[in-house]
Automatic annotation (TrEMBL):
Residues 114-345 form the ABC transmembrane type-1 domain. This is Peptide ABC transporter permease. It is a multi-pass membrane protein. The keyword Cell membrane applies. It comes from Chelatococcus daeguensis. It comes from the Bacteria. It is found in: Cell membrane. One of its GO terms (cellular component) is plasma membrane. Belongs to the binding-protein-dependent transport system permease family. Keywords: Cell membrane, Membrane, Transmembrane, Transmembrane helix, Transport. InterPro entries: BPD_transp_1_N (IPR045621), MetI-like (IPR000515), MetI-like_sf (IPR035906).
Length: 355
């Protein structure tokens, strides 16, 4: 009987291992197909737009033999499927070509500008989450009250007002009139050469090097655009938090917890919010991805030297290598954050681990 029990336990372990291996295999296939789809979309966008990458490099007045030679060097004379295979191979190694605008490898430019966008989007997401989640919880708990109406109006304004207009008004009021914050840009010229770039995130670099005057200057430039992005993030997060909390507060376990005599604070913040956090993780991750990708107008208004401004300038100068390279990076961020949110979902919800 002991041998039979041991054999049964071994069989269950093997079954769990097979199930785990199949789940990991499916996960990797989904990631590969998603990334391949992203590369396919960017490749065909680069082929259908009315911009000749060869003419963008050599100019409109270049001799025909020069145009043909450059076309051959770029592989644009090959069949479309061969071009796609070459494109995928280069993209997987981080080779997005040379930027016409800067004459640098596109990946070098992206490594230079992406930390600025990362810094801006991260602070914006922190502001949005730290304010949006409590506001959404309070709005759900006091449904129909004056506070609930205020939170919903704040969210509606966040969705309705154009971000470029709000950015210009914020600069006019808080920078030009009141002088509470620094102006456009990321750091004043007087401090620019006192900081040695390490991470590319200036708040961290200035703090690690003890350059506290430069730190205050960087924070003064950062706080206004980050607050603007944080406001739009807060509008989305608060609305979704309210929706999730209303669903959880109507569940039977909440009624049972109240019947047991638990305090309202415990029921709301320890039980209902804990269950609402499971889908809310995905909401916050997607909000973060949207700020990393969608801060183009904010970076333009505030002259913020990030990825959004880089892609915009490249598009205006028909620098398609830079545009497509930036698009692939943004898409990769979306894929990565979606995968991260899925993993966190499994950690927070034991039911998904049992499947």
């Amino acid at each position: 009987m002991a041998l039979a029990g041991s054999a049964g336990a071994g069989g269950r372990r093997r079954a769990r291992l097979r199930s785990t291996a199949m789940a990991v295999a499916r996960f990797l296939v989904v990631v590969a197909l998603t990334y391949l789809g992203l590369l396919a979309v960017t490749f065909f966008i680069g082929r259908v737009i009315p911009v000749d990458p060869v003419l963008a490099i050599v100019g409109d007045r270049a001799p025909s033999h020069v145009v043909e030679r450059v076309r051959e060097e770029l592989g644009l004379n090959l069949p479309l499927y061969q071009q796609f295979v070459i494109y995928v191979g280069k993209a997987l190694t981080g080779d997005f070509g040379i930027s016409v605008l800067t004459s640098n490898p596109v990946m070098t430019d992206i490594r230079r500008v992406f930390p600025a966008t990362l810094e801006l989007a991260t602070l914006g997401t922190l502001i949005g989450a730290l304010l949006g989640v409590p506001l959404g919880v309070l709005a759900a708990v006091r449904r129909g009250s004056f506070l609930d109406q205020i939170v919903r109006v704040i969210g509606l304004v966040g969705y309705s007002v154009p971000i470029f207009w709000l950015g210009l008004m914020a600069l006019l009021v808080f920078y030009a009139r009141l002088g509470w914050v620094e102006g456009p840009g990321r750091i004043d010229v007087v401090y620019e050469y006192t900081v040695t770039p390490v991470t590319g995130i200036l708040l961290l670099d200035t703090a690690m090097q003890g350059e506290w005057e430069a730190f205050r200057n960087v924070f003064g430039h950062l706080i206004l655009p980050a607050s603007l992005l944080g406001y739009f993030s807060m509008a989305y997060i608060s609305r979704m938090t309210r929706s999730f909390m209303l669903t959880e507060l109507g569940q039977e376990y909440v009624v049972a917890a109240r019947a047991k005599g638990l305090s309202e604070r415990t029921v709301i913040w320890r039980h209902a919010l804990r269950n609402a956090l499971v889908p809310l993780v995905t909401v916050i991750a997607l909000s973060y991805a949207n700020l990393l990708e969608g801060s183009v107008l904010t970076e333009t208004v505030f002259s913020w030297p990030g990825l959004g401004l880089y892609i915009t300038d490249s598009l205006q100068n028909a620098d398609m290598n830079a545009v497509l390279g930036g698009t692939i990076v943004v898409g990769s961020v979306f894929i990565g954050l979606n995968l991260l949110s899925d993993l966190l979902y499994r950690v927070l919800d034991p039911r998904t681990r049992a499947r």
